[in-house]
From TrEMBL:
GO terms for cellular component: Golgi membrane. GO terms for molecular function: alpha-mannosidase activity. This is Mannosidase endo-alpha like. The lineage of its organism: Eukaryota, Metazoa, Chordata, Craniata, Vertebrata. CDD domains: GH99. The keyword Transmembrane applies. It comes from Poecilia latipinna (sailfin molly). It is found in: Golgi apparatus membrane. It is a single-pass type II membrane protein. InterPro entries: Glyco_Hydrolase_99 (IPR026071). Its main location: Golgi. It holds the Pfam family Glyco_hydro_99. Keywords: Golgi apparatus, Hydrolase, Membrane, Signal-anchor, Transmembrane, Transmembrane helix.
């Protein structure tokens, strides 16, 4: 079976990240990769087809700086230029909703795979966030994950561990995301075992240093199968929402 993958950029914070440096970053990315067949573009509600950028820890930069990049009158504005795009900010605290709107972003995402870790990642808040986004013409992109456990590298963070429960946590998160009828759902999953968010094939493994979590009694591809099933469900549900 042929699987076609497209790539969107997730821009991490770095020392000296400003509206000017972000302008340079976006220009570089689009100039270098914009014509590649696997460069992801999103069709907006106005019919534009634009690159989509996730901006992690966007709250570290004040709204008045983001407006220089993300509003039409900004000194570094990319709006209406060949470097325009759909820019999605990270909502962690409730107040970030208003900062994101004031900054000129096109939407917000929640990122964290641990339900309850932040205001944005708490499933119970997604309905209210979605309503805020709908009222202000913003995308709301809830983020889900198969579970979370990072105590191997953050021993103090045990209270944010979320057990997989043989896939039920993942499915509960996906159901919560679909219930608010989003245009996009992101899956926060890395092939990094220290945060326990992987959905790739996994088999039992133990070393002198640690025991790696596996998917038993399920098959090695259990989470890939769940992802496929829910992606199909999501596509079918979206068709119904648009009818």
């Amino acid at each position: 079976m042929l699987i076609y993958v497209e790539v969107a950029f997730h821009i991490q914070p770095y020392k000296g990240r400003t509206d000017q440096s972000m302008h340079d970053n976006i220009k570089y990315i689009i100039d270098k990769y914009g014509n590649h067949g696997a460069f992801y573009r999103f069709r907006t509600s106005t019919g534009q087809v634009l690159p989509l950028f996730y901006v992690y820890d966007s709250y570290l930069t004040p709204p008045e700086s983001w407006t220089e990049l993300l509003t039409a009158k900004g000194s570094q504005s990319i709006r209406g230029t060949p470097y325009d795009g759909v820019f999605v900010a990270l909502v962690v605290e409730e107040r970030h909703k208003h900062d994101i709107l004031a900054s000129g972003f096109d939407g917000m995402y929640t990122y964290f795979a641990s339900n309850g870790f932040s205001f944005g990642s708490s499933h119970q808040n997604w309905k209210a966030i979605k309503e805020f986004c709908d009222a202000n013409n913003l995308l709301f992109i809830p983020s889900v994950g198969p579970g979370y456990v990072d105590t191997a590298v953050r021993p103090w963070n045990n209270h944010n561990t979320r057990n997989r429960v043989n896939g039920r946590y993942y499915e509960t998160s996906l159901q919560a995301a679909l219930s608010v009828r989003p245009e996009i759902v992101t899956i926060t999953s890395f092939n990094q075992w220290h945060e326990g968010t992987q959905i790739e094939r996994a088999v039992p493994k133990k070393t002198m240093a640690r025991l790696y979590l596996d998917y038993l009694p399920n098959q090695a591809d259990h989470y890939l199968q769940l992802t496929r099933q829910w992606a199909e469900t999501f596509n079918k549900e979206k068709d119904k929402w648009l009818m």
